[in-house]
Amino acid sequence: MVEKKEKVKTKIIDGKKMAAAIEKKLQAEIQTFERKPQMAVILVGDNPASLIYVNHKKKAAEKVGIDVAIYHLSPVMTQDALISFVEELNRNEGVDGIIVQLPLPKHFDENAVINAISPAKDIDGLNYINMGKLFIGQPSLVPCTPLACMALIKSVSRNLVGKTAVVVGRSRLVGKPMVQLLLNEQCTVTQAHSKTKHLSDVCKNADIIVSATGCAGLIRKKFVKKGAILIDVGIVRTASKKITGDIAYEEMLGHAKAITPVPGGVGPMTVAMLLSNVVKAYRDANVLLPRI
Ligand code: NAD
């Protein structure tokens, strides 16, 4: 069959604008709370990228009225001491959400530390209890980037029942929870990864592609069905210091139904979803255990 040549009008999904609208709503909601929600961020060591991310989260949180406590700990501490510190924050009623900034220095067992966070305060949604709840379709705190992707997809297609989706990437942070969110929306989902053969064949019938690999321009026009929705999670800094994503963006204009730009798509929405998780944790804790 000869493919029709008509161009599609591609919607550029403005993640920055969507995030700003969500943050405005959160700010208004927080003003109705008895006290400011508090997010605790544990940063171990001096990884320069982590320092930037942590400060970025702090700035965004404070803008909507969330208090942020950053605990900058020494990388020479023991695993037990770090877990005890997490447990202390779990018991602290003034703390609503806890983040352990990853990666941790090599000698820590990241799983053990993340799993020590109380599921009710696990605003990154990476704890095995929250992951398990997501897998069985129970309400939970869900990782922020997949939540962001889902909100971006839903901004252009409300009903996802029966849609075909491909998620490229299988990380705990993005790819795996993304698959579950799409399954929970009753999509038919395929997960691709670095060992997948013939990625273009795997992708080319998808109504939705979410790519989270960090490989610049991996997803080409020939991988993509006309009218597909494309969500680009990848963040890659090119040799010329430009930030780009996994999807060959220019090629998709006039071909995809909708696409997220990089930057300005998934990134700002991920931050908005983190703040939204802090507010959710506060709300849930205060409904179950009213503070007098
Ligand atoms: P990761 O390194 O943990 O996982 C990358 C995944 O991509 C792996 O599962 C791997 O199997 C897959 N992969 C690698 N090369 C591939 C290939 N050629 N074909 C198919 N699959 C391939 O990374 P991550 O934490 O999931 O992040 C992925 C990307 O998303 C990175 O660029 C990261 O910077 C970015 N990211 C962005 C945000 C955001 O807020 N925008 C948040 C998290 C991650």
Write the layout of secondary structure elements.
Layout: E1 11-12, H1 15-30, E2 38-44, H2 48-64, E3 67-73, H3 79-91, E4 97-100, H4 110-116, H5 128-135, H6 144-154, E5 164-168, H7 175-184, E6 188-192, H8 199-203, E7 208-211, E8 229-232, E9 236-237, E10 243-244, H9 249-252, E11 258-259, H10 266-288
Parallel strand pairs: 1-11, 2-3, 2-4, 5-6, 5-7, 7-8, 8-11
Antiparallel strand pairs: 9-10
Query: How many runs of DSSP E, i.e. beta strands?
Result: 11
Straight-line distance between termini: 69 Å
Strand arrangement within the widest β-sheet reads: 1-11-8-7-5-6
Order of helices and strands: EHEHEHEHHHEHEHEEEEHEH
Largest sheet: 6 strands, parallel
Query: Low-confidence segments, ≥5 residues, pLDDT <50?
Result: none
CATH topology of the largest domain: Rossmann fold
Describe the structure.
By secondary structure, the chain is an alpha/beta fold. The protein has two domains: 35-120, 3-Layer(aba) Sandwich (Rossmann fold), CATH 3.40.50.10860; 143-267, Rossmann fold (3-Layer(aba) Sandwich). It has ten helices and eleven strands. Helix 6 (144-154) packs across helix 10 (266-288). The longest helix has 23 residues, at 266-288. The radius of gyration is 20 Å and the shape is globular. Nicotinamide-adenine-dinucleotide is lined by residues 145, 168-171, 173-175, 192-194, 196, 199, 212-215, 218, 233-236, 266-267, 270.
